[in-house]
Amino acid sequence: MPGAIAASEVRVGANGTLYIAPGGTAGPANITAPWSGFTNLGYLDEEGAKLARTLTTEQVKAWQTISTIRYIPTEVAFVISFNLLQFNKDTLPFYLGGGAIVTQGGGSFKYSVSSAPTIDERVLGLEWLDGAITSRVIIGRGMVTESGETAIGRSAPIKLPLSFAAMAPSSGTELSYFLTNDTAFA
After folding, report:
1. What are the helix (H) ranges across the chain?
2. Is residue 9 part of a domain?
3. 0.85 exceeded by the pTM?
């Protein structure tokens, strides 16, 4: 029965995986397709990931009524936010806007933060599990829009807080897409 209260449709992201790939990489076409060309970014903190869609509109008012008569969309955003726990050659450049780790020899490595940043366009995929149910959300074109403050101390892990925002697709209107084997969508 549509719209019925159903505890069987309450979902938990019990665990999951966050993936990135270079811009232009094709995301998985279905729920069983592998994450070909993607890199697993490792552990996220216990909060997992947060999804947000925002729509900004312009109100149209009329003399004949005190209520808005129309909304005109002026901006849409889809953002996935998370805190990376692993600190390595994949996560640090992602957190700081691109670039690469350079091997200096003798067991030494260097990463330079650029004073002339460029757009580090990526593809991001998030997969989470709830028992036998697998769900995925993929942003086919996006970038890190916010790298939050990171605390480095002796009593807590270093977290790399990020927000990854979708960009307009090269063609079509698909800002992101969801895949699932959840029968609640049947």
Report:
1. 91-95
2. no
3. yes
